[in-house]
Every structure is written in structure tokens, then in C-alpha cells.
TrEMBL record:
Coiled-coil ranges (or none): none
Gene behind the chain: dcm
SUPFAM superfamilies for this protein: S-adenosyl-L-methionine-dependent methyltransferases
Top-level division of the source organism's lineage: Bacteria
Family membership noted in the UniProt record: Belongs to the class I-like SAM-binding methyltransferase superfamily. C5-methyltransferase family.
PANTHER family for this protein: CYTOSINE-SPECIFIC METHYLTRANSFERASE, DNA (CYTOSINE-5)-METHYLTRANSFERASE 1
Species of origin: Xylanibacter brevis
Molecular-function annotations in GO: DNA (cytosine-5-)-methyltransferase activity
EC number: 2.1.1.37
Protein's name in the database: Cytosine-specific methyltransferase
Record has Methyltransferase as a keyword: yes
Pfam families xref list: DNA_methylase
Catalytic activity from the UniProt record: a 2'-deoxycytidine in DNA + S-adenosyl-L-methionine = a 5-methyl-2'-deoxycytidine in DNA + S-adenosyl-L-homocysteine + H(+)
GO biological process per UniProt: methylation
């Protein structure tokens, strides 16, 4: 299996200059593929851990993993459903999802009308009716500032953060396993004190934390250079009997060509869709940038004028005037494809990536529809966990739950009435949303009609809650 110099750099987390020097100096035998691209054969790179894992992968074997029974799950901070969809594809049965953003909730409801989605502030949800009825809880909590009242930092020191709300849900539900995902920067946030506080909080909750891993999406059939920190914790009464195994990678790195054309993950070309456009002045600048290039490929006078004050800072800034390459994975998607500091220009056409191209890079299926204004759609997709990454982790979690069933068999719980109770309580709330802080205040515990736009009532569920909602 061939890997280019640039893609090996993405795989190993180093620069293309370094991997090119490996070729030049003969550190590893190099070769040229049929397109004239220089790189390496993967079997010649077995002393590089990431390459070795891809060569010796168990992807096909793990792809066949299926749940031995229904495993109930709850997801918090669900967004547009990247993580939830991946977990569902792996075999989890979602009984409840929570998300604050209205457009994202509409996306979830549009695509999975049988999912029970609570739109609103997680702080107002009482999860106790689901105690010991749910097998798995997951959520990608936003990383807020943590307070450190205690010297060690634990559960009480996370109060006021959304991690605290996830931890509270764990405390109230007592799932067998829970998972948190976040940006890899959480590991070093505040000189490591944030992750230390989270670890201590997990221990106080009565769970054993699997050593956290930063997973590179490009290793899991995702055509995007995106890294996520994954934390998985197993309830103490179970942890000593089982062992979690991280997912095996796919055999090769997928590129934008795999995202936009028929191949491994899609059987047709990317559908036409709405998308952002460049002003004429910016378009003329971007037309000068080759595939895989950036501001450094512009004539000096053009670059100087385009970059403005950033020109004086020198070096780096490779996101500016950046055109992607069809033979490489995309850079990490952001909430907009045309921000000046994080440009994501189409490899061949001089325009920002379209909404559906964004979705394909995040490995959403083409039938998954995003609701809201175009800017809402970009934001939802940019903030999502890549579906195929979530699916790979989900399969490893299903394998863990199958192992738990072998040593500690239990029957799946019926969560219908518990979910009904939770959602009816939410139906009675009248809340005022603050979109800036992503929080809300309860105005009344009795539902009432209101004419003001900023008063949001939870959609009436009542007898419409399905008796047994399926994926």
C-alpha cells in the first residue's frame, strides 16, 4: 500500500519537510506512484507505530462486530448527530438525546423522527428515572474554564462547567460505561490541570478510566486531518472483569478523491448543493493558488496585499489562501469554509467547499439532511464528530459490552416510561434561551402560550412518544 510524503506527514504528525527528508536521506526506501507522486510503501515503514497498525489492521474483523442484545444509550451535546449516528450504526439503541441548538435539534428530528430529542439546557434535565436502565452514555462536552477550589480538583471543582452536567448525568443514570470526546488540546489545557480534574471527577463517580487516547480520524476511513481526544470509563464493579480495546485503523488514508467520487465510502459523486461563494476580488486571488497551496504560492505583492497585517508576522499561517488537494485528506473543517485564517477552497474549482462536500468530508451519508440557514448547516457539520470515526469507536464499545454480557449477563431495560417521564417534565418548562452563553433560565414550571420569540417551549410529546422507539 502506497502512501505519499504529505500523507505520511499527516499520519505521523510531523511536517512534509521532515518526511521528504526521510526519502532524500534514504531513511526509508521511497518510490513514485503512477501519478508521479513520491512516497513510500507502507510495509517499509513498520517501525512507525501508525504505519504498522495500518498494515497489520483488523478492520474487516472488527467491522463484523454486532451487539448480542439491545444496548440502551443516552447522548448529551448531540449536535447534528455525527457521534450519535456512528454509535447507532455500531449497534447502540438511543433512548434519549439532548442538544441546545435549535437548528441541530431540527436536523436530528428530520433524519431520525423516532429519536427522543430534548431541545434545551442540559442543566434542567433530571436523569434519575433512567437510573440503571441505560448501558451507555456519551457526549462531547464544550471545554469551558474550570475552577480549582480544591488542591486535587474533583467532581465539585467542575461545577459550573458542562463537564459537570455530563458527570451529573452519569451519577444519576449509573451507566455501565460512559464516553467523553473533546479536542486534543484538552490534554494540555491549563497546564494539564483540566484533564487531571476530569480524571479525579471520574474516579469520584465510581468509574475506572481507560487511558485516554487521541485518535486521528484519517486512520479510521475519514478523509480529513482531524484529531479527537476520547475518554472511556467503566463502572468499578465491572472494570476488573473486562478490558477495552481501541479500534483498529483502516488499511490506508482516504483523500478528497474518496470523499467526492465513487469509492470506498460513497458509490456516487458528491451531490450538488448550496454553498458559500467568494467575492470577485478574493476569487481572483484564490485562482492563483495551486492544489495543496496557500499564500506562499502567491506573487509577493498579491500575498502582501491579501494578508494585510498578517504579512508582517511572517512564517506559518498555512490556513490563509489555502486550496485543498484532491490527493490528500482535507484539513480540519471549521464552522465556515471561507474564513480568512482557515480557508478551505475546493481543490479544482475556485470556491469554498459546498455544504454536501463538507458533509462528505465528515462522512455523513448523502441522505442526512441539515436544517437551518446555510451558515447553520456549515456550523453543524464543522462541529460534528466524523461519523466513521464514531462508528469505529462504537464497534469497539459494542465489543466491550458483548464481553460484559459474557461475564455479567443482564437483560435490556425498557426505558419507555422513564423517557416519557423525563420528556413530560421538559414539556412543562418555559425557558428563556441565551444563545451567547448557550444556557437558559426557567421562566415557569407550567407550560403556557407566549408570543415572544426568545421564549422557547419544548415540543409537546405526550402520547406521541413511541412505545419502543427504534433506530
Amino acid at each position: 500500500m502506497f502512501i505519499s510524503i504529505n500523507n505520511l506527514a499527516a499520519l505521523t504528525g510531523t511536517s512534509a519537510a521532515v518526511t521528504a527528508s526521510w526519502s532524500r536521506r534514504g531513511v526509508y526506501p521511497s518510490c513514485v506512484d503512477s501519478n508521479g507522486v513520491r512516497g513510500f510503501e507502507m510495509h517499509d515503514l513498520l517501525d512507525i507505530p501508525e504505519a504498522k497498525a495500518m498494515v497489520e489492521n483488523r478492520w474487516s474483523e472488527e467491522f463484523e462486530v454486532a451487539p448480542v442484545r439491545q444496548f440502551n444509550s443516552v447522548e448529551l451535546f448531540a449536535g447534528a448527530g455525527g457521534l450519535a449516528l456512528g454509535m447507532a450504526k455500531a449497534g447502540f439503541h438511543h433512548v434519549l438525546l439532548n442538544e441546545f441548538d435549535t437548528s441541530a435539534c431540527n436536523t436530528l428530528r428530520k433524519n431520525r423522527p423516532d429519536w427522543n430529542v430534548i431541545e434545551g439546557d442540559v442543566r434542567h434535565i433530571d436523569f434519575t428515572p433512567l437510573r440503571r436502565k441505560v448501558d451507555f452514555l456519551s457526549g462531547g462536552f464544550p471545554c469551558q474554564a474550570f475552577s480549582y477550589a480544591g488542591k486535587q480538583g474533583g467532581f465539585s471543582d467542575t461545577r459550573g462547567t458542562l463537564f459537570f452536567e455530563l458527570a451529573r448525568a452519569v451519577k444519576e443514570i449509573q451507566p455501565k460505561v460512559f464516553m467523553c470526546e473533546n479536542v486534543k488540546g484538552l490534554v494540555s489545557h491549563d497546564d494539564g490541570r483540566t484533564i487531571a480534574t476530569i480524571k479525579n471527577a471520574i474516579a469520584e463517580l465510581g468509574y475506572t478510566l481507560v487511558e485516554p487516547h487521541v485518535l486521528k480520524a484519517i486512520m479510521y476511513q475519514v478523509p480529513q486531518k482531524r484529531e479527537r481526544l476520547i475518554l472511556i470509563a467503566i463502572r468499578n464493579d465491572i472494570a476488573q472483569h473486562v478490558e477495552f480495546h481501541w479500534p483498529s485503523p483502516y488499511e490506508r488514508i482516504l483523500t478528497l478523491r474518496d470523499a467526492f467520487f465513487p469509492g470506498v465510502i460513497y458509490d456516487c459523486e458528491v451531490p450538488q448543493s448550496e454553498g458559500a461563494t467568494y467575492p470577485e476580488k478574493k476569487k481572483k486571488v484564490m485562482e492563483l493558488v495551486p492544489q495543496g497551496g496557500d499564500w506562499r504560492n502567491l506573487p509577493e505583492e498579491v500575498a502582501r496585499k491579501y494578508m494585510g497585517g498578517s504579512w508582517l508576522l511572517g512564517g506559518g499561517k498555512t490556513g490563509m489562501a489555502r486550496r485543498l488537494s484532491m490527493s490528500e485528506p482535507s484539513l480540519t473543517l471549521t464552522c465556515s469554509p471561507s474564513q480568512k485564517q482557515t480557508e478551505r477552497c475546493h481543490p479544482v474549482e475556485t470556491r469554498p467547499l459546498s455544504v454536501r462536500e463538507y458533509a462528505r468530508i465528515q462522512t455523513f451519508p448523502d441522505e442526512w439532511q441539515f436544517m437551518g440557514a446555510m451558515s447553520d448547516k456549515y456550523k453543524q457539520i464543522g462541529n460534528a464528530v466524523p461519523v466513521n470515526l464514531a462508528w469505529a469507536v462504537g464497534r469497539s464499545l459494542i465489543r466491550l459490552f458483548n464481553d460484559i454480557e459474557t461475564v455479567m449477563p443482564t437483560a435490556a431495560s425498557d426505558c419507555t416510561e422513564a423517557v416519557r417521564e423525563i420528556m413530560l417534565k421538559q414539556q412543562s418548562l418555559v425557558v428563556k434561551k441565551n444563545k451567547v452563553t448557550q444556557t437558559s433560565e426557567v421562566q415557569s414550571n407550567l407550560r403556557q402560550l407566549n408570543l415572544f420569540d426568545d421564549i422557547v417551549t419544548v415540543k409537546k410529546i405526550g402520547n406521541d412518544i413511541p412505545v419502543d422507539s427504534k433506530l
